Amino acid sequence: MNPEFIVPTCLIKEAYVLSEKAVEGRIPIAIDSHVSDKNATPGEQYYAYIVTPSGMQPKLPKKGTKGIVIFEDIEISPGDTGYWMGAIKNKFNQKDPAPSKSEVSQIENDNKDSRVAVADGTAGLYSKESKAVISPEGFEVDVTSGQIAISKEGINLVNKDSAGEIRAQLLISPYDTAIESTGRFRVQSRGNIAFRTENNNFVITGLLDKNSSEKGENAYRPIDTFFLKSKKAIFNTTKGPLYMFGGNVAMKLAGGKVTGGGGKPGKGPDATFAVEAVQGDIELQAGDGDIAIIANDKMQSDKVTIRCGATINPMRSWIEMKGRELLVKNQTAPGLDCSITLAQQKVEIDAFKDISLNSQTGKITIDAVQNIEVEAQAQIKMKANAKIEIEASTIIKMKANVMLDLKDCRIIDAGQKTVAQSAGPFCALPVCPITGMGHVGDKAIG
To answer: Which residue, of 12, 50, 175, 225, has the fewest CB within 10 Å?
Structure first.
């Protein structure tokens, strides 16, 4: 008969879940332990609502789970409904099976500090500070330094110190499996080690911080160091994101060629560190600091490349940085590109089509200590809505192989000039008063 507790307004009973499928918010349960989902009859079934905190979804217990059910009435009958309060877990309270002397056969030593007792279905070895018991409930060994208990509820192994405090514990049950130790915990194998869980979390934390006001995993202290030494590490989160939080993250890589491919040094990939997003964006962001991408360029051939567009894609743009050169380039097709190159104290701008310099509100200044040369295969045009000023400290030379054509122009403040090839007293006149010929020449002085 399962235990029951009666309070003035309700009845508390142990119960077993017959099915984890809820009907109208209730699960079928049995009061007697011999009843199962296979032999239960409608006259032996009871029901229970799942009690959960407000706002949370009820978590249905699995079939066969033993738990506590509260009925509102003291008198109950099959078909009544109670409230499932929770499962009974980790019950390792083996009863001392030693019955009264009238019901047991036993052998004692002369000092009566050790004995062997046998009763119906139970056998026990007892000493002053230890015991070993076999009974229908299970098997239990209890000594000063620890305890071993095996029952239908599971297996419990405990190690204690001289004061009786637990130093290490191994608990295996259908409800909870736990390993706890006040010292070092080690798992070692010459083969594979696998940790698996179904639709749940795998968590590594420190001990519970009893003074913490946090809930869930945040209530546990962090561990000091997580050290992983492996020839190869794989983190596969194909069905969800991968998050890494830390004060800082530092990664030091030996090199793809050094570590080798297939276990052969020198045969590894050229890419020592690679990040690839099959779909979506890659974002680097510094809230209050710098983002630095550095190649030491010890061989003067190392480079940093930022490229948009695959290598085989004819339309692509990229920035390539070397120790002695910086290249910014855009390509729309092979041979159709434009670029800016900074190298050897020089800047080169090259474009297959046009180069435009535009200032909306300011000015464009071109300044050189030596020469400024502008050259075109066809024409050079200079246009200003106001005026164009050309000033030289010594000489302004203008040369045309055919003609210097000045249209709609006037010479202003040119000063007095004479034709350098003319001679005579009337050379300042446009027309010679004697011959009637015009005074012309290719040079003017004055």
So the answer is: 225
Please list, in sequence order, all residues whose beta carbon lies within 8 angstroms of the beta carbon of residue 19, skipping any fewer than 6 positions away: 27, 28, 37, 63
Residue 6: the pLDDT is 46
416: nearest Cα among 404, 406, 428, 405? 428
Q: Helix, strand, or coil here: 44?
A: coil
Q: Give residue 102's pLDDT.
A: 45
**Rounded CA gap, 411 and 379, in Å?**
24
Tell me, what's the pLDDT at 238? Answer: 76
What is the rounded end-to-end Cα distance, in angstroms, of the chain?
136
Helix, strand, coil percent content, the chain, rounded in steps of 5: 0, 30, 70
Could you count the other beta carbons within 10 Å of the beta carbon of residue 176? 11
Rg for the chain, CA atoms, rounded = 48
pTM over the 0.85 mark: no
DSSP 267: -
CB atoms within 10 A of CB 329: 16
Q: Report CA torsion sign: 194, 198, 202, 207.
A: negative
At 399, which amino acid appears? K
CB atoms within 10 A of CB 133: 22
Given this model, what pLDDT does residue 230 score? 83
Query: What size, in residues, is the chain?
Result: 446
Q: Which residues, 6+ apart, have CB-to-CB distance to 3 below 8 Å?
A: 14
CB contact at 8 A, 50 and 59: yes
SS3 state at 103: helix
Residue whose token pair is 């003291």: 74
Segments of the chain scoring below 70 in pLDDT: 1-9, 32-43, 52-57, 89-106, 110, 254-271, 297-301, 311, 404, 409-429, 439-446
Alpha-carbon distances, residue 114 vs 98, 104, 127, 132, 139 (angstroms): 13, 15, 4, 12, 19
Would strands 45-50 and 81-87 be described as parallel, antiparallel, or unpaired? parallel
- CATH architecture of residue range(s) 4-87: Beta Barrel (2.40)
Per DSSP, the three-state class of 101 is: helix
Cα–Cα distances (Å) from 216 to 59, 176, 222, 317, 365, in that order, read: 17, 17, 13, 48, 64
Q: How many whole angstroms separate alpha carbon 46 and alpha carbon 28?
A: 6
What single letter denotes the amino acid at residue 14? Answer: E
